[in-house]
Amino acid sequence: MSQPDVVKFSCYQCSQHIRAFREHIGESIMCPSCGTMITVPAVSQFDEKVEELVVQRKFTDEELDLIRQEGAGAYEAFIGGAVSKYWQFALVADLLTKRLSPLQQSVLDLMRRQVIYDREVVNHGPFIKFVNAKAEEFFGILYMLTDRLAGELDRVIYEDNLSQIITFSNQVGVVILRLRKFHDSIYEQPLPGEYPYPELQGIMKSWAPHCWQSIKNVTEELRQLSVRKRNDGSWKAMQMAFAPALLHEFYYHLKFLPEPEPDLFQD
Predict the structure, then answer these.
(1) For the segment 112-165, what is each residue's pLDDT rounded down to a tens digit?
(2) Is there a contact between 91 and 68 (Cβ–Cβ < 8 Å)?
(3) How many CB atoms lie within 10 A of CB 18?
């Protein structure tokens, strides 16, 4: 099978060998090793014999089509150097980073304002129901996120299967979109200004940003491992860090929610 029409070059900062499709000539990309922004040259910088010694993983035409569909950054999976067999670490990092983008836009929106409930509270029932429902929703999302990133990632990352990696990344992406929807809803729902509502709402507003940062930490560690494979205990430890802090405070404040008013129309 003929190899794709690619440009082969190296990072001027760390000498990392990189391959890029010719369609990306002139574009700026991030070096998968040191993070330096470099421009894809029009001409290869080293010959095919040298490159053949460097690149260990060969992609099929079908796999290359899948990579192209994922956008310009995905071809960084063509990792040069002696550790090119760890291409899947870089690709998972790239795909998860893309799927984090909607959540990142939400959690980093510094102009967002909280909707305030500025009327007298006649019935606490709807507010109590909202807090409990949102807590249940988040822990369902957290369970799915942990199952994917602390369970399935181990299996996917060590299997030489591009299709499985993309499927896995899409599944994580669905959970991330649910997490963004949860985060947005916390800001959109007005709650009373009396204790313990502001405390509970403030803690719930911190949950999605915590998960975003935890996933971001995993992707950064995977990207480093893809070019300098070492003991992977550090990124596995990060996988277990999705549970947010202040959970004990949330349940403490939850105890002080007022009792819901009885339904006068109920027998």
Answers:
(1) 887 777 778 778 999 999 999 999 999 999 999 988 988 888 888 887 788 899
(2) no
(3) 23
Q: Please, which pLDDT band fits residue 21 given cuts at 50, 70 and 90?
A: confident
Q: How large is the angle between the packed helices 125-147 and 207-227, nearest 10 degrees?
A: 10
Cα–Cα distance measured from residue 101 to residue 179, given in angstroms and rounded to the nearest whole number: 12
Q: Is residue 33 classed exposed, middle or buried when 0-12, 13-18 and 19+ CB atoms within 10 A define those classes?
A: buried
Token couple for 226: 């893809």
- Comparing CA positions, the residue from 9, 50, 56, 17 lying closest to residue 33 is 17
Mutual angle of helices 125-147 and 247-254, in 10-degree steps: 160
Distance (Å, rounded) from C-alpha 79 to C-alpha 28? 17
Burial of residue 263 (number of CB atoms within 10 Å: 0-12, 13-18, 19+): exposed
Q: What percentage of the chain reaches a pLDDT higher than 90?
A: 34
The position carrying tokens 């990072």 is 11
At residue 81, the pLDDT reads: 35
39 pLDDT band, cuts 50/70/90, is confident
- Could you give the CA distance from residue 249 to residue 88 in angstroms, rounded to a whole number? 39
Q: Where are any strands of DSSP class E within the chain?
A: 6-10, 17-21, 28-30, 37-39
| Sign, CA torsion 55/61/66/69 | positive
User: Is the whole model's pTM more than 0.70, yes or no?
Assistant: yes
